[in-house]
Amino acid sequence: MSENSDYDPAQEGAQMDFDGRMSYGDYLCLDQVLGAQRPRTDAHDEMLFIIQHQTSELWMRLVIHEITAAREAIKTDQLQPAMKTLSRVSRIFEQLNSAWDVLRTMTPSDYTHFRRKLGQSSGFQSYQYRAIEFALGNRNHAMLRPHAHVPGVLAKLEAELAEPSLYDEAIRLAARRGIAMPEDVLGRDVRTTHTVHDGVTQGWKLIYEDPEKYWALYEVAEKLVDLEDYFRRWRFNHVTTVERVIGLKRGTGGTGGTSYLRRMLDVELFPELWRVRTEL
Question: Under a CB-based contact definition with an 8 Å cutoff, are residues 63 and 132 in contact?
Answer without folding.
Answer: yes
